[in-house]
Task: inverse folding
């Protein structure tokens, strides 16, 4: 890095102009541990599992999502749910990682109500499988009437089978409206217990809505959309570290599988203690996910 | 962190992003043809940067957001473009 010309008293310093709030806190603890609570590993190469394990990941949780193209029939979903519950845990286990999953039809494929109903009908036969944590990631994409109808059917399915829920909120200009509609839908079903629901992909304009309604909030660390590491840490500093987690949501798009540990590193630069970081990247997901008795580590 | 520490950690990054924003606007100005609602939304969001108070990021996000409350009749695309087209072309509410 080139010397910076200002301030004058640092002109001769060729070290990076970066200071930690408390330099004695660096570096990260070598035994850092974390849980990756939202990653689409079917879209990732095996080297990513190695990287996660090397960085201290203890478990990875994989919500069902859109493949990047529309599946043509319920059979495609059946095979996908088998992949999530049978094949992917074996890939993870090669690197000592526990693998869990959530099942649903993604809101991007919810415009077709007939297909959605067919998929909803096959989900119950998978719910008892060892790694299945609940229903997710359900939610909205373009905030359409059919998407909302399928969201309500998923909520009903989860309530009927006493399942936890992981919610996807829409992208970009659709997020605020979608978050409001999702919270209304969840609140209108009295069987839903907010402490067993995480609403993911919050940003500055939606985090308060989610937390004030009693739900857990997820922050997704993306390079181009959702939260950057710096903004996610801002939210932690402003809204606290209760009922909130961070995830990479790595998939087939632009995403960073190691976003959580990299954000932990940035938290250290900003003076957060090892204990505070551990709470956000390990204890919090452990607390939420352990509400499902099937979530066990080691 | 102190303000000095925030500057030490983030100033060069923010400076880089600011120049990129300026270059983007220059690029739009140089280009032929008409802009669309996204540029208007962008300029509206830019105004939020000059407002005092600690809610600039939230206000920028709100400036790009669909403010309506009723579900749309049908999703005709899966994609989001980053700005709300507005009443003329967008959600009928
Ligand atoms: Zn996802």
Result:
């Amino acid at each position: 890095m080139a010397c910076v010309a200002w301030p004058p008293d640092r002109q001769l310093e060729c070290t990076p102009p970066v200071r930690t709030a408390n330099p004695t806190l660096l570096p990260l603890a070598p035994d850092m541990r974390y849980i990756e609570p939202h990653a689409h590993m079917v879209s990732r190469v095996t080297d990513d599992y190695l990287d996660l394990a090397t960085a201290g990941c203890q478990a990875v949780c994989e919500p069902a999502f859109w493949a990047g193209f529309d599946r043509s029939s319920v059979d495609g979903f059946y095979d996908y749910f088998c992949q999530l519950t049978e094949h992917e845990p074996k890939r993870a286990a090669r690197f000592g990682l526990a693998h869990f999953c959530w099942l649903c039809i993604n809101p991007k494929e919810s415009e077709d109500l007939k297909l959605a109903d067919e998929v909803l009908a096959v989900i119950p036969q998978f719910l008892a499988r060892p790694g299945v944590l609940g229903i997710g990631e359900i939610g909205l994409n373009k905030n359409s009437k059919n998407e909302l109808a399928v969201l309500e059917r998923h909520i009903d399915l989860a309530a009927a089978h006493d399942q936890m829920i992981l919610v996807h909120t829409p992208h970009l200009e659709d997020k605020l409206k979608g978050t409001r509609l999702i919270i209304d839908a969840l609140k209108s079903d009295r069987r839903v217990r907010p402490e067993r629901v995480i609403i993911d992909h919050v940003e500055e304009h939606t985090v308060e809505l989610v937390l004030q309604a009693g739900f857990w909030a997820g922050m997704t660390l993306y390079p181009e959309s959702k939260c950057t590491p710096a903004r996610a840490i801002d939210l932690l500093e402003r809204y606290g570290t209760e009922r909130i987690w961070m995830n990479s949501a790595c998939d087939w798009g632009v995403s960073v599988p190691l976003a959580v540990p990299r954000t932990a590193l940035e938290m250290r630069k900003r003076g957060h203690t090892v204990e505070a970081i551990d709470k956000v990247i390990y204890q919090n997901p452990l607390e939420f996910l352990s509400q499902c008795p099937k979530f066990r580590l080691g | 962190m102190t303000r000095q520490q925030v500057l030490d950690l983030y100033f060069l990054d923010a400076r880089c992003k600011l120049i990129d924003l300026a270059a983007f606007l220059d690029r739009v100005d140089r280009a032929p043809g008409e802009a669309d609602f996204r540029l208007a939304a962008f300029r509206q969001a830019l105004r939020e940067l000059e407002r005092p108070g600690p809610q600039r990021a939230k206000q920028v996000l709100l400036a790009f957001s669909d403010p309506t409350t009723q579900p749309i009749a049908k999703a005709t695309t899966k994609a989001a473009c980053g700005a709300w087209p507005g009443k003329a072309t967008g959600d009928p509410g």
